[in-house]
């Protein structure tokens, strides 16, 4: 899943793809690099980001969604707003990527009515309420894997009650959302448990996130995102993607498609699997890396 941020304030590229021309060029780039899904968003999900009105989001993303769908791409719209989801699904999107853990039940009803898929990400509260990059109380979770899965299941049940079929739901553990670096690292390390617990496809979005900065902070205490800019976290991002694929993730949401695909394809080739397959195994202990 390649990321196309049509925003002026994205944490990962700072608005580099904000103009319509730049956004369409980004779609072309992602497809050329081997993306299977194009994830288009018109609202930043960085900590403390102000909410963007639905009509503004629609103005930013609708033509990009139409353009990508017209190229035959599988298009996901990254939004928490039912109005935005409905407009983009009508324009050719087939997935809604909800980073709010279904704060608005109407979003699920829109998805159900369209027959689309729903990526449901674990989170607590809105982006505006998030305290900062990888800043969250250590004691906010008892067992982070158990708590995240339980809270996600509650949201998935609300989606089911709104008419979304279980086989149309994808789980995202929400690395970096309402979690500090320790929480995100533990979720990633124990991703196999998450995959086995939820029993649906799992999306992992570790790419360029601040918790990856712990690679240069052995104390794992407080990563300093400003010391390792998002665009300089490629090595850690690819390593996280490889680990997630080994653990059974079905979708990798990434900014650097070519580098990630090269790493995944080489890993599969070296281990005897067919290149191009992102995740066929769920138990790396049996087959090795």
Shape: globular
| CATH hierarchy, class | Alpha Beta
Give the class from helix and strand content and strand pairing. alpha/beta
Using the 3D structure, state the CATH architecture: Alpha-Beta Barrel
Would you count the extended β strands for me? Answer: 8
Number of self-contained structural domains = 1
CATH superfamily: Dihydropteroate synthase-like
Oligomer state of the chains in this structure: single chain
Strand order of the largest sheet: 1-2-3-4-5-6
Strand proportion, as a percent range, falls in: 5-15%
| Biggest β-sheet strands, sense, barrel | 6 strands, parallel
Mean pLDDT: 88
CATH topology term: TIM Barrel
Order of helices and strands: EHEHEHEHEHEHHEHEHH
How far is the first residue's CA from the last residue's CA? 22 Å
Radius of gyration: 18 Å
- H/I helix tally: 10
Helix content: 40-55%
- Low-confidence blocks of residues: 277-289
Topology:
Layout: E1 2-5, H1 20-33, E2 37-41, H2 54-70, E3 74-78, H3 82-90, E4 95-98, H4 105-114, E5 117-121, H5 144-161, E6 169-172, H6 181-189, H7 191-198, E7 203-204, H8 234-247, E8 251-252, H9 257-270, H10 284-287
Parallel strand pairs: 1-2, 2-3, 3-4, 4-5, 5-6, 7-8
């Amino acid at each position: 899943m390649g990321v196309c941020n049509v925003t002026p304030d994205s944490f990962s590229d700072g608005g580099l793809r904000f103009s319509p021309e730049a956004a369409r060029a980004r779609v072309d780039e992602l497809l050329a690099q081997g993306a299977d899904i194009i994830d288009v968003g018109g609202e930043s999900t960085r900590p403390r980001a102000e909410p963007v009105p639905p009509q503004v989001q629609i103005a930013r993303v609708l033509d990009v969604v139409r353009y990508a769908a017209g190229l035959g791409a599988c298009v996901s719209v990254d939004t928490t707003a039912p109005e935005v989801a409905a407009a983009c699904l009508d324009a050719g999107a087939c997935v809604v990527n909800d980073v709010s853990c279904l704060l608005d039940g109407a979003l699920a009803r829109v998805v159900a009515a369209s027959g689309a898929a729903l990526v449901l990400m674990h989170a607590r509260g809105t982006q505006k309420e998030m305290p900062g990059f990888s800043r969250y109380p250590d004691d906010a979770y008892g067992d982070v894997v158990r708590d995240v899965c339980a809270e996600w299941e509650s949201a998935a049940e609300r989606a089911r009650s709104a008419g979304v079929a279980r086989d149309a739901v994808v789980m995202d553990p929400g690395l970096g959302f309402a979690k500090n670096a320790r929480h995100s690292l533990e979720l990633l390390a124990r991703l196999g448990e998450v995959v086995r617990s939820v029993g649906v496809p799992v999306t992992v979005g570790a790419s360029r996130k601040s918790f990856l900065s712990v690679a240069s902070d052995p104390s794992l205490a407080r990563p300093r995102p400003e010391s390792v800019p998002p665009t300089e976290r490629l090595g850690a991002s690819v390593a996280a993607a490889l680990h997630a694929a080994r653990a059974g993730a079905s979708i990798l949401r990434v900014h650097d498609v070519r580098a990630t695909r090269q790493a995944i394809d080489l890993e599969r080739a070296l281990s005897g699997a067919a290149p191009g397959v992102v995740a066929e195994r769920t138990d790396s202990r049996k087959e090795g890396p």
